[in-house]
Amino acid sequence: MAVALLLTNICVAQNYFDDFPVMANPKTVGDKLSTRFLESKHQLYGDRGIHYAEVCTWYGALKFAELTDDQDLVKELRTRFELLFHIEKDLLPPPIHVDQNMFGSLPLRLYTMTKDERYLELGLPYADSQWILPPNANEEERKWHEKGFSWQTRLWIDDMYMITVVQNQAYKVTGDPKYIDRAANEMVLYLDEIQRPNGLFYHAPDVPYYWARGNGWMAVGMADLLYDLPENHKDRPRIMEGYLAMMKSLKAYQSPGGMWNQLIDEPDFWPETSGTAMFTYAFIMGVKHGWLDAEEYGPAARQAWLAMVPYIDEQGNVTEVCIGTGKKNDKQYYYDRPRPVGDFHGQAPYIWCVNALLEK
């Protein structure tokens, strides 16, 4: 029965995810975004290495190159990375924080594609060190470690992409179940602790606002984890429950034009592209893999994709992207956030959507 449902969903999904207008063709969009990435300078944390938003974009571009068998693009993306082994070695992020550690997903992805051992040797310690308590750990970090969770646990919604992406990649390259178990165990913790009754997530327990991109990290994190998690894994039912609850609520808050706003439940706020792209990705993944009803969510995903594409300018920059945003218990603060053109926070999830649409 489950297989039949999945096959039905795939057939219906092809109808919703095919025959796009020229400007919305996933391959065309992917080429444009990947070219723009290669033209871009590094985004840095000051003296703490390459920023996670660039890593997310780079990771997406690599997957796009693989899906389209674009060996020239693979070569250019690898050439950009090769500098990190010598000339730009100082830009490697230190494994001292959840945002820096997720860098490991990038060399691990390159190892999957090339089997070059240098990538494995560089990437795997970023995954391992998320569970190795540093000598200078504070009391809260020690507490999480003693409970079997990553010492980098913060109960911030961003973490459910930053932790899971590197652990998932480590699982794929090693086959060691401890990595996927870590990711699933963390996800269940976060769902139990911070998911609201309506399926969405506050930016933080003391900041009761449904910020779009923050929720987007959870949406993408759950979708990617469900894709990688074995069907018989003990934590799969709980994660699926959390994912379905979130998707139902997101569908209810999608605007008539297809986008989601900077604060999801505030109709007077502006449409925000990075969160919209993340939710669209989660919808596409759910429809294609049979987790979501295709006839209900397929049209919503298609509408969102068609609404997103016009926000890409002629240079391949995504517009209306909320800048990196810390929590603040002030609604106006979220409304007033700057919207830098071409911010990697927006470029990345757009490429992820391209990949989800192209995957068979």
UniProtKB/TrEMBL annotation:
Keywords: Hydrolase. The keyword Hydrolase applies. GO terms for biological process: carbohydrate metabolic process. GO terms for molecular function: hydrolase activity. This is Glycosyl hydrolase. It comes from Draconibacterium sediminis.
